[in-house]
Structure formats: C-alpha cells, structure tokens
Amino acid sequence: MDIDYRDEITVGEVNAIRKSMGWRQDNPEQLQAALDGSAFIVAAYDGDQAIGMARLIWDGGGGASISNILSPEYTSQGVEGALITRLLDYLRGKLKPGFGIQVDIRAWSGQEPFYESLGFQLSTPERRGIPMHICLTNQIELTDKMFGQMGF
User: How far apart are CA 79 and CA 4, in angstroms?
Assistant: First the structure.
C-alpha cells in the first residue's frame, strides 16, 4: 500500500470520507471554516482518493485537540497512526523551553489501546474532570440524539 500524505484536503473529500464511515455530511461552509481554522492538517490519499484526515485545533497556547477521520477499509493499516504522529511531530517542533502542550483526542469504544500506543493517557475524572458537551443548532431536527455516534 502506497499512501501519500498531504497538508491539504477539500471539503468534498472530507465529506466523502465521512460518508464512507456512515456519518452525516457536514455543511460545506461550516466545514471549510473548520479546515481554515485548523493549525495544521494532514490528509492521507490512496492514489487520488482521500481516505483519511487529521486536523490540529490549537491557538498556540498550552492546550490542543486532534480531530481525525479514516475510511473504515483502512483501519489497522497504520494510516491513522501516521496521521496522528505527523500532528504530534508538528507540535513538538513548536515547543520552546518551558512550554508544554496538552493534546486531547477522542477515543471511540475500543480505540483506547491504539491511542495509548501513541503516548496518550486515558483521562480520568480525578485527573481531568468529566468530558461534557453541548450541541448547538438553529435547526430543531439536528438534536443531540441525531449526533449519537457521529463524531461529535
């Protein structure tokens, strides 16, 4: 398998990956804003087809977040690890003496050992509090129930 890694991806390609995962399509304008607002993006391509993406959400301070997606047929083939490693290497390159950056990532059920193999630690309420969320929308049909297992 010859995967090519690039630092850009289109909205259409992201939505195609989301579709392959069974997730809803994101609003193109909102998705473009997310891509534009990312500190760093790495996309994986198999030939001309985008198969995965990881983006770094970071403002230059001490906290960052990684959001990533991968077409299911490429799971357990090293692609996701390569995407995450590239983002972590980018951040390591930004560290100055005395700096520290806490990087958060969302592990879905069963992914914990994989992320631990990359150096992440399981957050516990005693160490980090309890993760919470709210889904904001001006469309009544987009309720939290619909977001269920959709990457939010």
Answer: 10
pLDDT by residue for the chain (152 residues), tens only, comes to 799 999 999 999 999 999 999 999 899 999 999 999 999 999 999 999 999 999 999 999 999 999 999 999 999 999 999 999 999 999 999 999 999 999 999 888 788 989 999 999 888 888 777 777 777 776 655 544 555 444 44
d(CA 70, CA 72): 6
Question: Distance between CA atoms of 44 and 1, rounded to whole angstroms?
Answer: 12
What are 70's strand-pairing partners? 52
Nearest to 131 by CA among 101, 106, 149, 113: 106
pTM for this structure?
Answer: 0.83
